Amino acid sequence: MRQGECNVTEFFTELKTLWEELESLRPTPDCICKIKYSCALIKSVVKHRESEYVLCLLKGLNDSYVTVKTQILLMEPLPNVNRVFSLVIQQERQLTRNAMVNRKFLLNTLSSEGNWKTHHNGGWKSQGRGRNQYQNNGKQCTFCHKLYHTVDEC
Questions:
Q1: In angstroms, how far is CA 148 from the centroid of its own chain?
Q2: Hey, which residues does 58 pair with through a beta bridge?
Q3: 79 and 37 part of one domain
Q4: How far is 3 from 14, CA to CA, in rounded Å?
Q5: Three-state SS for 109?
Q6: 87 vs 61: CA distance, rounded Å
């Protein structure tokens, strides 16, 4: 499975549902030792299955999580799937926070330049310069979308 457009929580929930269905179809074998759980076989099987879940979760994440995926895979011993989910959620929050900061910075930059703030008489008015689109000789940069110059002059 791949994360795709889902957030991490939605993706993890889908995976856990699938894992629970698989567990009902192929349950962990019960211990048959004379002294229950005296051998390490069942613990080993459970640990192996847990590692599979961790790898499945990490492998299905989008490329934006490559840093946290690498950090988790370098951990010794490999954490359980719930701990991995927690670490990935932290990374998702950080990515979301960074994206919001970048959007705010871009909006503030555009606002401070005074371009395209108000729509006036059917044309965009540039504030602070006293000129509107009808006085720019038809020039508008296709790169930065500002008026009064072209991409060659940008």
A1: 38
A2: none
A3: yes
A4: 9
A5: helix
A6: 13
The whole-angstrom separation of Cα 38 and Cα 32 is 10
**Tokens representing residue 91 in the block:** 């990374």
Helix (H, G, I), strand (E, B) or coil at 140: strand
Distance CA 101, CA 129 (A): 28
Cα separations in angstroms, 67 against 73, 95, 138: 10, 11, 46
d(Cα 130, Cα 9) in Å, to the nearest integer? 51
Distance CA 94, CA 83 (A): 17
Domain span at 154: 115-154
d(CA 56, CA 69): 11
**What's the pLDDT tens digit per position in 49-105?**
999 999 999 999 999 999 999 999 999 999 999 999 999 999 999 988 877 777 777
Residue type, 85: F
- Is there a single domain that holds both residue 125 and residue 154? yes
What distance in Å separates the CA atoms of residue 15 and residue 6, rounded to the nearest whole number? 12
